[in-house]
């Protein structure tokens, strides 16, 4: 399975165009893997998680044709993950040669947001409201939404994705997983976990709302103790912010001793 990281930043992106902190200034000088757009991942060019404001940039930069997209999963409705006004460009008259509807999955706020912004057209969009821990079969995978610890005013979701015999945990945005999610994960055998690492060094093993470096390390420890991950399972950190005070190489340095990989924009892996 091909897994393509389209964006790997938190809400502001790196460099934040409105910021002159040392990370943003250094990123402007160095470019490369330091430049991060808002977070999204696409699996086999057909299943995508989240629809950030950089979807246009992702498509142009990595030459992706979103008409091939079959399923779109939305984690929550913060502006760096959810842009219904942008997806409007797929409607009849704006987009041509679209042969099948895009199936969109999300919580009630996400589905409601799409309904309000995009006129109903079953040839272009089919919306599915999903609930935590209730498995669904999509066109491309078997998916179970899990509870995140992120925004107390919204049922923010993570996704457990079973595709082509592989088990993947899509784990952002979230702090330390809620107990119900940990319980559900027990007995699973992950091939890959993609984890939130919005923070740098917080000196907090179980940070709330977003994970930090220490929380990602603690998650890995519990995965090992509870045998939630396969022997050769991989952990990849993503959703970084300039406020962490680290460039790409700083995150690599922090995670390398623990065999945790650091995502960057345009990174493609195969599992
Ligand atoms: Zn976010
Ligand atoms: Zn900055
Ligand atoms: Zn968020």
Tags for this entry?
7-stranded mixed sheet; single chain; 14 strands; Metallo-beta-lactamase, Chain A; alpha/beta; binds zinc ion; 271 residues
Summarize it.
The protein has 271 residues and is an alpha/beta fold. The chain has 7 helices and 14 strands.
Describe the structure.
With 271 residues, the protein is an alpha/beta fold. It has one domain: Ribonuclease Z/Hydroxyacylglutathione hydrolase-like (Metallo-beta-lactamase, Chain A), CATH 3.60.15. It contains seven helices and 14 strands. It has helices at residues 22-30, 55-61, 84-87, 108-117, 179-185, 213-225, 248-255, and strands at residues 2-7, 40-43, 47-49, 71-73, 102-106, 125-129, 136-137, 142-147, 157-163, 166-171, 190-196, 229-238, 260-262, 268-270. The protein has a seven-stranded mixed β-sheet. Strands 7-8-9-10-11-12-13 form a seven-stranded mixed β-sheet. The model has no long low-confidence stretch (mean pLDDT 97). The site of one zinc ion has 7 residues, from loops. One zinc ion binds at residues 10-11, 78, 80-81, 173, 239.
Contiguous helical run count: 7
The backbone outline, from C-alpha atoms, is: globular
Contiguous low-pLDDT stretches (5 residues minimum) are: none
CATH superfamily: Ribonuclease Z/Hydroxyacylglutathione hydrolase-like
CATH topology: Metallo-beta-lactamase, Chain A
Mean pLDDT, to the nearest integer, reads: 97
Spatially, the strands of the biggest sheet line up as 6-5-4-3-2-1-14
The end-to-end span amounts to 5 Å
CATH class term:
Alpha Beta
Number of strands: 14
Total discrete domains? 1
Query: What gyration radius follows from the Cα positions, in whole Å?
Result: 18 Å
Q: What about the largest sheet?
A: 7 strands, mixed
Secondary-structure-based class equals alpha/beta
Percent of residues in helices comes to 10-25%
Strand content: 25-35%
Bound molecules: zinc ion
**What string, H for helix and E for strand, traces the elements in order?**
EHEEHEHEHEEEEEHEHEHEE
* CATH architecture name: 4-Layer Sandwich
